[in-house]
Amino acid sequence: MKRVTIASFNVKNLIGAEKEYYKFQIYTEEEHAWKEAWLADQIVTMDADLVGFQEIFEEKALRDVIAEADEIGEESNEAVIPDRSKRYRKKAIFRKLSYTGYRDAALAFAPNLNDGEAGSRRPGVAILSRFGFDGTPEIIQDLDEPLEIPFQDMGGGDGGYFRISRLSRPILKARVPMGKEVVTVFNCHLKSKLGEFVTPEGAEFAPEVDLAKYDPVGRALGAARAAMRRMAEAWILRRAIVEELHAGRPVIVMGDFNDSEHAVSSEIIAGEKPFKNYSWMLRHNAKASNDRYSRDENEHIQEALGSVRLHSAEKLFVKKSMRDMIFTSAFGGVYESIDQIYLSRHFVPEAGGTMGEMEYFSVLNDHLTDGAHAEAPYNKLASDHGQIMVHLALKDKGEGDKR
């Protein structure tokens, strides 16, 4: 079996020194050097084969972090990799101590089409792969056709519609050779929960952002806009996922979902969870109380849903290990997982997986503090997200293949 590690890492506003990314927010040379070193240390600790990064303003800044990670890792290798001058030449020790590096890895960067001038920057995403890419990675952000979601008014009339023509941040889609297969990997950063407010024509700013004149109703509408945009973006991602699954390709989805796995947006991405049995359910066109789906139809429905459903790596791990203390975000006293890695059933044996299975799930979150306690100061230079990593064991070609 081949073992592969997949990670998701929201780095929190990675940009070069002395560059204003958001209004009045900038890293001094010293702050940038500290942040770069901290990020490099995290990458060395993970030592993942494939990493999806979020909140990347500049590709060069990320390449500099990766280069520093390689320097740190290679220095460590010189000190700890067993050789004839050292007496601990055991394979188990070697696996734990060695760092592989990224000097021959491929990096794909998706800049944000909404990126602006200094003080109004918008971050993109990236994928780092030791396996390279099969073909050129694709960016999903500007939609060829705007997405229009119609609503039916409860009174039976025209309920209007919600429309978007561009995502708030790009989705990066890459096909990655992995073991004996090519896996489609999606890296995303969906719209945050921060309210989205409309600036009136001729005004300097939206009235809802003036907290001295707090508008609770307007603020609530801003949160509703953000939620609708996030769910629409989740649907765009879901459409692309299903297209790959219908083409017979294994899929891994990672990124900052800005929602927990039980949120509607996450459920949209994962796909509908099937009932245990549809043969007790009334048919869609039932003409009588006993007009229900047949057992054969139940099996067909189960397969239709199961074949395109994704599985939360975190949830699989919790089920396997009986743990429930995983979190990737801490804010205002709320600890939750908003960073996710989802796997198609190809990696889930109990769902008919053919590629292998997840052996372990790691989260690096000891650096997270929410500022709610005086003894837990918030470090603005470190990431405000935990890093998550999936450890996969891939089968050899043909082993257990039932497709």
Description:
The chain has 403 residues and is an alpha+beta fold. It has a domain at 2-188 and 311-394: 4-Layer Sandwich (Deoxyribonuclease I, Chain A). The chain contains 7 helices and 14 strands. The strands form 3 sheets. Strands 3-4-2-1-14-13 form a 6-stranded mixed sheet, sandwiched between helices. A 6-stranded mixed sheet has the order 5-6-7-8-12-9. Strand 1, helix 1 (29-46) and strand 2 (50-56) form a beta-alpha-beta unit. Helix 1 (29-46) crosses helix 2 and helix 4 (216-246) packs parallel to helix 5 (264-270).
CATH architecture of the domain at 2-188 and 311-394: 4-Layer Sandwich
Biggest sheet character? 6 strands, mixed
CATH class term of the domain at 2-188 and 311-394: Alpha Beta
What's the CATH topology name of the domain at 2-188 and 311-394?
A: Deoxyribonuclease I, Chain A
The DSSP helix count reads 7
Calculate Rg over CA atoms: 23 Å
How far from one another are the termini? 19 Å
- Sequence of secondary-structure elements: EHEHHEEEEEHEHHEHEEEEE
Strand order of the largest sheet: 3-4-2-1-14-13
**Taking all residues together, what is the mean pLDDT?**
88
Structural class: alpha+beta
What gross morphology would you assign?
globular
Task: Specify the helix fraction band.
Answer: 25-40%
The tally of strands reads: 14
Low-confidence residue ranges = none
Strand content: 25-35%
Short précis:
The chain has 403 residues and is of the alpha+beta class.
Give keywords.
403 residues, alpha+beta, Deoxyribonuclease I, Chain A, six-stranded mixed beta sheet, 14 strands, 26% helix, globular
